[in-house]
């Protein structure tokens, strides 16, 4: 299989139907040899049922269920079961067709292509408070963990043969999984490219000020996780 698209989904009943319609429509044109893996995790709404309904109509849509909310756990599950030579990670509220098309040019020779909200040319249209949290978090990653890029969270295209050994070492299962994956890939010497992206907020942030309060805890968790090879 050429391409696996991995999508964590938690309480996404409002956005999921349109997302699946749009992404599947583009995949059918761009890469017919694909699978779309939706990993529903701990939703309290109809996310799982909606994903299953789409899967019944399109066997290329695979649905996996986790009983507890776990963004990192959902990504780990998706990466574990994916069969594609190239892997793309999207969020239900944020996807970009360019990252699908990267398989056509062998990811431009890179192992990881990461969508960055902080690169020149990017357009982060989220509220100022969310942009500030993102910039502050990435600054702490640079200071305390030696991160050399501009962003770790968001959409990605990955070469499975290169990253399979990386994600299997990851220890975190929360929203900081993205950061652990990218920093481990960087430390392992993988070739990483960042591309500017445009981000528009489609729903309210789920964690708000709590996310700010958790930042020091997240940095400590990442530091401890990355000490384990």
CATH structural fold name: Spore Coat Polysaccharide Biosynthesis Protein SpsA, Chain A
Q: How far apart are the first and last residues' alpha carbons, in Å? A: 30 Å
Q: How many strands, which pairing sense, and closed or not: the largest β-sheet?
A: 7 strands, mixed
User: Which consecutive residue ranges, at least 5 long each, have pLDDT under 50?
Assistant: none
The averaged pLDDT comes out at 94
CATH structural architecture: Alpha-Beta Complex
CATH level 4 superfamily: Spore Coat Polysaccharide Biosynthesis Protein SpsA, Chain A
Structural commentary:
- The chain has 229 residues and is α/β, with parallel strands linked by helices.
- It has a single domain, classed as Spore Coat Polysaccharide Biosynthesis Protein SpsA, Chain A (Alpha-Beta Complex).
- Helices cover 43% and strands 19% of the residues.
- It contains 8 helices and 9 strands.
- The strands form 2 sheets. A 7-stranded mixed beta sheet has the order 3-2-1-4-7-5-8, with helices on both faces. A two-stranded parallel sheet has the order 6-9.
- Strand 1, helix 1 and strand 2 form a beta-alpha-beta unit.
- Helix 5 runs parallel beside helix 8.
- The radius of gyration is 17 Å and the shape is globular.
- The model has no long low-confidence stretch (mean pLDDT 94).
